[in-house]
Design brief:
The protein contains four helices and no strands. The protein is an all-alpha fold. It holds the Pfam family YjiS-like.
């Protein structure tokens, strides 16, 4: 192995390290951003439990949906995903016609 080949190998190793560090930083940033979004959505979903049943019905939810979403999601989980799923399910079945006899 000549001296120039050793120098090339060293450059490749040094060039690969910053790329990994950048990926780790990006992954950490994405995790922090995701956790912040989940906390923000939990804070926004919490006042839904104070609405009366008619107001919740207007947005396609029931009190049970709100309680389940807040209980089943952890501190860093997003309850709005469960609330959106419950509202979609209710919208599909709410005005469905009964089967013809």
């Amino acid at each position: 192995m000549s001296t120039t080949e050793c120098g090339t190998d060293l450059k490749l190793v040094k060039a690969a390290a910053p790329v990994r560090a950048g990926l780790v930083q990006t992954a950490v940033f994405v995790r922090i951003k995701s956790a912040w979004r989940a906390i923000r959505n939990r804070i926004a979903a919490h006042p839904l439990s104070e609405l009366d049943d008619h107001m919740l019905d207007d947005i396609g939810l029931s009190r049970r949906d709100v309680v389940i979403a807040l209980d089943r999601s952890g501190a860093l989980d997003d309850p709005s995903l469960l609330l959106a799923k419950a509202a979609r399910t209710r919208a599909r079945t709410r005005f469905a016609r009964p089967p013809a006899r």
